[in-house]
Amino acid sequence: MIPVDASLGPELAEFWSKKYKETKEELDNLKTLVASKSVESDEILDTVRSIKKAVDDEATLRQKLEVAVKEKEELASRVAQLEAEQSLLSKQAQLSVTQAKLLAEEVAQQRHSAISRRFPPVQFVERSEQMSFTFTDYRGMIGHLPDLFSKERLQFVVRPPGSLPLCLPVFGQHGFWFYAPFHEPFHLVAQMGPNEWSYLGQYISAPLANDEMKLSEWMALDEEIKTAHCSRQAALTSDEDPLVIRQRYETGERKIPCCSLQCVGYNKLLCEALRVAAGNARLQQMLQQQQQTSSPKGAQTGQPQEAADASQKKGKRKSSCGGPLIQDKSLPKKTRTSPKVIFKLESGLR
């Protein structure tokens, strides 16, 4: 047993009390420090996790980037390959079109040669005598023709893409067209430009035996002409689609007949009468326009109507000039409902 001096009790109590407080304060400080270190370690851990996630994301993105770069290279290679194929196909298409045009020209020359052997050469008019005239509506113009030409048959043909081409080396000469035949003589008036027309001569049209539009001739036509023709054919046969009709033309399942154009005359008096009638029609149209702009509102609805009625009556009286080739009931129905014809001079007017 260790002896203890009781006189030292208060000092020991004070000493250990002080030691306890110091130890407690140190412990509290350590706890605070540990807590702050714990927060810092959590922040560090969060930072480490964020960095690790960023590294992982970067690795994933790098992999995706490598895949994207590889796909881009493959696509660039594919695009280059497709462009090369497109260029080759384009050259082949251009070559096919060129060959089709050359074949079409050769077929046209063969037809002209056959027609020149079939029909004797003619020289009804000099080339320098060709005359052009301007009008907007042939139905109104023929009402101004003299009674002398009331029994003449007139065929007005429009320029592309109104219908398929008729081919004449020059006016007043033989040629051919892809249109319904007219076995009786008729006078041919063709559109050369916007509202510009020319009298070509008097013709007889007959089918060319075993001769149809060749596939090369069809392929050589402008897209607008082919589309317009198929649309007209679809309008005549409502049960067919224009695209189906075009496909049948391009496969040779459907063919277009060809007819000759034999020049049998050139009526210079009719040519001059057409020029004068076109001028009178333009003058009448100008007068009607002036009346509509200058007359009072009440008169504006009266006078032009009277002029129109008079022109209509005159047109009816002269309808035999243009009617027989358009509405004559003596012609087959197919002829009367056929579309208008394009006039297309060959290059160089051979």
Describe the structure.
The protein is of the alpha+beta class and 350 residues long. The chain contains 10 helices and 8 strands. The chain has helices at residues 9-118, 138-141, 215-220, 223-236, 242-251, 268-294, 297-300, 303-317, 319-322, 333-337, and strands spanning 132-134, 154-157, 165-168, 175-177, 186-193, 196-212, 257-265, 342-345. Strands 1, 2, 3, 4, 5, 6, 7 and 8 form an 8-stranded mixed sheet that branches. The longest helix is centred in the first third of the chain and has 110 residues, at 9-118. Residues 298-350 have low confidence and may be disordered.
Give the mean pLDDT.
Answer: 79
List low-pLDDT spans. Answer: 298-350
Order of helices and strands: HEHEEEEEHHHEHHHHHE
Give the fraction of residues assigned to helices.
Answer: 55-70%
Principal-axis shape equals elongated
The total of beta strands comes to 8
Considering the chains and any ligands shown, give keywords for the structure.
single chain; 350 residues; alpha+beta; eight-stranded mixed β-sheet; 8 strands; 15% strand
Quick recap of the structure?
The chain is an alpha+beta fold and 350 residues long.
List the helices and strands and how they pair.
Layout: H1 9-118, E1 132-134, H2 138-141, E2 154-157, E3 165-168, E4 175-177, E5 186-193, E6 196-212, H3 215-220, H4 223-236, H5 242-251, E7 257-265, H6 268-294, H7 297-300, H8 303-317, H9 319-322, H10 333-337, E8 342-345
Parallel strand pairs: 2-5, 3-8
Antiparallel strand pairs: 1-6, 3-4, 4-7, 5-6, 6-7
Helix pairs in contact: 4-5
